[in-house]
Write a structure and sequence with these properties.
Cathepsin D, subunit A, domain 1, six-stranded mixed β-barrel, 21 strands, Peptidase A2 domain-containing protein, mainly beta, single chain, 3 helices, Peptidase_aspartic_dom_sf, six-stranded mixed sheet, 2 domains
Length: 253
């Protein structure tokens, strides 16, 4: 993908449960689901038994430990974890390994929705990977969602980023109910034109626009939770305003 160096990324799939990626724990390959709504990452009892290999089955709510850090590989990178909680129920799609905020807030992920590639951005790559991108400040919510400043029709709104939602956008703005017309959301110097729109009352009236994974179809973005940033590539936008430098959009600005 343009402007990015380092490890080769892996494919991701957008499913009803969110973003699915391939990963491995101690060499045991599995499908993982990225779930920012979960505070802690979990592993299924089946995978926990395979990784442990000592014969004693793992029950729901127990912890998978090896007496040393375990190696997780995903998206072209590896990192250690000391322990993982065993999921309390049968896994759904991608449920063998649910990646929660405890992992997401420690790493930067580059997602290219054009090629459906995801890769981990290493520290030495960061400056080059963020070149020409717009950085949007994120404010965390209690349910794993994130809000950021945007505007619809020139009017400022608080938008919510929900990466567990495969849809494009859910909006509760009466003035934006233009039949089946796409939602045009301005974020800094770029715009997102979103055709997959559900019009319904939002759970939080203070943030009437909720963006899911479908909002970024055809774009490259970076999920940078360590710095509470969401980077958007403006290239390809009709109102792009592309320059050679990074831009930052702050909450409350």
């Amino acid at each position: 993908m343009g402007g990015v160096i380092g490890a080769i990324g892996a494919k991701f799939v957008i499913a009803a449960t969110g973003l699915l990626v391939s990963a491995s724990i101690e060499g045991h390959r599995l499908q993982a689901r990225i779930d920012p709504g979960s505070e802690s990452s979990t592993v299924s009892a089946r995978i926990a038994d395979q990784v442990d290999g000592r014969g004693a089955p793992h029950g729901a709510g127990s912890m998978l430990r090896r007496g040393r850090p375990m190696t997780i590989a995903m998206s072209g990178g590896t990192f250690p974890v000391e322990a993982l909680a065993v999921a309390p129920s049968r896994p759904e799609a991608g449920g063998d390994f649910r990646i929660g905020r405890d992992i997401l807030e420690g790493h930067v992920f580059d997602l290219d929705f054009r090629s459906r590639q995801i890769r981990m951005v290493l520290p030495y790559e960061y400056a080059r990977a963020t070149r020409r991108l717009i950085a949007v400040d994120l404010t965390p919510g209690p349910d794993g969602s994130w809000t950021f400043p945007a505007s619809v029709g020139g009017k400022p709104v608080a938008a919510t980023l929900r990466l567990s939602d495969p849809r494009g956008a859910t909006i509760g703005l009466p003035s934006s109910a233009n039949g089946g017309a796409p939602l045009v959301l301005a974020v800094g110097t770029t715009t997102l034109s979103i055709s997959d729109v559900v019009r319904a009352a939002p759970a939080d009236a203070r943030a009437p626009v909720v963006l899911g994974l479908g909002a970024f179809d055809g774009r490259r973005v970076m999920l940078d939770l360590p710095h509470r940033l969401f980077w958007i590539d403006p290239r390809g936008s009709r109102a792009g305003g592309e320059t050679g430098r990074s831009h930052r959009i702050r909450n409350g600005a």
